[in-house]
Design a protein that fits this description.
- The chain is mainly α.
- The chain has a single domain, classed as Growth Hormone, Chain: A (Up-down Bundle), CATH 1.20.1250.
- 78% of the residues lie in helices and 0% in strands.
- The protein has 17 helices and no strands.
- Helix 16 packs antiparallel against helix 17.
- It starts with 13 loop residues before the first helix and ends in a 9-residue tail after the last helix.
Length: 429
């Protein structure tokens, strides 16, 4: 990772900070509605027809794109560092994500749609992951000095609430809840309500991504795309060759990749596990989703000040300890009420761990190399991305129990936290 002289962006004020944070609000609807609580459950029960087999197939769908994300993230990040136009790259990723998401409308409740639905979800997940490279890199342009942790935490917290609001709209507007008919009179046949969440999330994503694209001012670019590709690839190659001598960075990338894979698995399979292993009905699942998003958002926002005060690494470690301490009883309890209560408390530590990890990567990146840094962050986060879901799928299939699959999540939290505990955090500016 090379640092070079870069021009600072024109002043980004409060409106730009809000616009940047709002992208978390925009994209989190995909994780919440499609990946965790509505479409994933519809896929396992409505399309596949078997909760355990459906969970295993969902793991394959989410994990299969991890290799491509791992290969493209650092390359695209390095190219954007030299060519600028990170917002243009971000817009392209949004377009590539919302099209397959919208096409989920056609995924009928029939086993013949299993492969197509898996393909659409996989493509959208790839574009989702790649968009975060450019979005995260813009954090350095947006956050004022000394406020990196707060802006990152605010964005992450806003994301949880955005996913929650979109979920509520989906439930009351498209699916119906508590015996009440949906506000939009969709046909009752062919699971029109769950299928309609695809177009809803796609529209949500586009609308709330616009403030970032319109308000955030990034560093001036202008290097022709060909030259940007050549220089970006050359810098990336030098960085990769130098990694053996950068033990501190490598430990953070590896450790964070491990516990971030635990986060990914939790989001991908949390709703499936709650419905399949604990037998939560739809109403309980909704309450679980709402409560978890609220506590996670509150935790991310409150810990944002902690991040800027005591540092990103201590914030991460405190959060990991909380996740492990609560995760063990969560996978052991059989009572749905205990499960929901413990999960709500766990949410307080979920958001801070994610936001502080993003902040620490930004603090470790050299000026002008943020895109490459977050590309490597994406690379390591997805290099084992195909293993996590397949690990869940394998454990679930081997023991015929989703509890065994969820136990792997707690292991990843603990192992990743132990590695990051050895990282030296740079001085905060």
């Amino acid at each position: 990772m090379t640092a070079e002289a870069v021009s600072a962006p024109r002043s980004n004020g409060r409106a730009a900070i809000f616009g940047w944070c709002l992208y978390d609000w925009a994209m989190s609807a995909f994780n919440t509605v499609i990946g965790t609580f509505v479409f994933s459950v519809y896929f396992t029960k409505g399309i596949v027809g078997d909760a355990d087999h459906g969970a295993a197939l969902w793991g394959v769908a989410i994990g299969a794109g991890g290799i491509l994300v791992a290969l493209l993230s650092p390359v695209l990040g390095a190219v954007a560092d030299h060519g600028g136009r990170r917002k243009a790259w971000l817009a392209a990723c949004v377009a590539a994500a919302v099209v397959p998401t919208a096409l989920l409308w056609f995924a009928a409740p029939d086993p013949s749609w299993i492969v197509a639905a898996m393909l659409l979800v996989g493509l959208a997940s790839i574009a989702f992951e790649l968009s975060t490279v450019f979005y995260n890199a813009l954090l350095i342009d947006v956050a004022p000095p000394g406020m990196l942790g707060r802006v990152s935490g605010w964005g992450w917290g806003l994301g949880y609430f955005g996913g929650l609001v979109c979920l509520v709209i989906a439930l009351f507007g498209l699916i119906g809840f508590g015996g009440a008919a949906p506000l939009l009179p969709l046909p009752a046949v062919d699971s029109a309500g769950p299928r309609a969440t695809g177009p809803l999330v796609a529209l949500w994503w586009v609308v709330f991504a616009l403030p970032l694209l319109l308000l955030v001012r990034e560093r001036p670019g202008g290097t022709p795309i060909g030259a940007a590709i050549r220089r970006g690839l050359a810098d990336l190659w030098r960085t990769l060759k130098s990694l053996p001598g950068q033990g501190n960075l490598v430990r953070f990338l590896v450790g964070s990749a491990i516990y971030r894979e635990g986060f990914n698995m939790l989001f991908a399979f949390g709703g499936i596990y709650a419905a399949g292993a604990l037998g939560l009905d739809f109403g309980q699942l909704v309450l679980f989703a709402i409560g978890l998003n609220v506590t996670s958002g509150i935790g991310a926002i409150l810990f944002a000040w902690v991040d800027d005060t005591i540092g990103s690494k201590p914030t991460i470690l405190v959060s990991i300890v909380g996740l492990v301490a609560l995760g063990v009883p969560i996978i052991l309890v059989a009572d749905p009420h205990w499960f929901i209560g413990l999960a709500l408390v766990l949410g307080l530590f979920l958001g801070p761990a994610q936001a502080a990890s993003r902040t620490l990567m930004g603090r470790m990146a050299p000026p002008g190399g943020e895109g490459e840094a977050y590309g490597l962050y994406g690379l390591t986060g997805r290099a084992t991305g195909f293993l996590g879901p397949w690990l869940f799928a394998g454990a679930t299939a081997a023991f015929a129990s989703q509890r065994a699959g969820m136990a792997t999540v707690i292991t990843l939290f603990a192992l990743g936290g132990l590695i990051v505990a050895t990282v030296r955090e740079p001085a905060r500016g």
